[in-house]
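User
New here, help please:
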Amino acid sequence: MSKRERASLVATIAELNDPVRYVIVAVFSRKFCMYYFPSDGCFMMNAITPACLFKHKAEAQAVAKLLEGRRAKKAPRTITVIAVKKTKSGVRILDEITNPWHPNETWKPILRKKDRTPTG
């Protein structure tokens, strides 16, 4: 195996093991954010599922740019891409979001708590 092939293989393995993913979020307030589902083409409120996650930031930004093109010209930019980390219990938000109406204010969105009541 050549050095180039080995480096490519190591980079591919490192990318597969990286738990960081990206999600498109439409920001309204800290407690009210909507996350984009690319498979369905719709948004879901305050919940991030594996179907929302993008592996590459460039792909998520390209989709967000297409979605952002639908907004009115003078409206604030409410669609953004944030990094999340996959965990055993779901996801953890890594990036802070800039408030579109108050640019000096940043915060992390609050996700809906999972229902932990036993079924049956």
The chain has two helices and seven strands. The radius of gyration is 17 Å. Residues 29 and 99 are 8 Å apart (CA to CA). The mean pLDDT is 83.
